[in-house]
Amino acid sequence: MATLPYVGKWNSEKAVITTGQTVFRPGTGLPLLSHHVEESVLILEGEATAEIDGDFFDLQAGQATWVPAGVPHRFFNRGEGVMRICWVYGVRDVTRTVTATGETFEHLSEYDKGGAPTA
Question: Which residues form a coiled coil (predicted)?
């Protein structure tokens, strides 16, 4: 998995959004998690399955989702090729809470093992 941050507090003093892209190899995904803010995810390439609040949705390139704040969700690659997603949050400071452990940490921080940016 590789994450490429686009716009956020790391490269703009004024931006009030956080955006980026994550690339998943076949059969990979993130654990069930939630954020303190809403999130929109656009599938850029490949075949995804989104689990949002216990419901499952099969998605393909060009389709998008919206996840309300506090709702457990995850995306995983159900296809045989690469899956790329673009994610958007409407705030500068984003946290992730892992559903299984309750652990909360800053998105893209050193503690965010599921979404650390690539060099």
Answer: none
List, for residues 61-81, the tens digit of each pLDDT value: 999 999 999 999 999 999 999
pTM over 0.85: yes
Contact indicator for 26, 46 with CB cutoff of 8 Å: no
Q: How far is CA 103 from CA 5, 15, 64, 119, in A?
A: 22, 27, 27, 25
d(CA 9, CA 81): 32
> Does residue 116 sit within a domain?
no
Beta-bridge partners for 52: 55, 73
Q: What are phi and psi of 71, to 5 degrees?
A: -95, 125
Structural domains counted in the chain:
1
Do 7 and 108 meet the contact criterion of CB atoms below 8 Å apart?
no
Domain that residue 40 falls in: 2-106
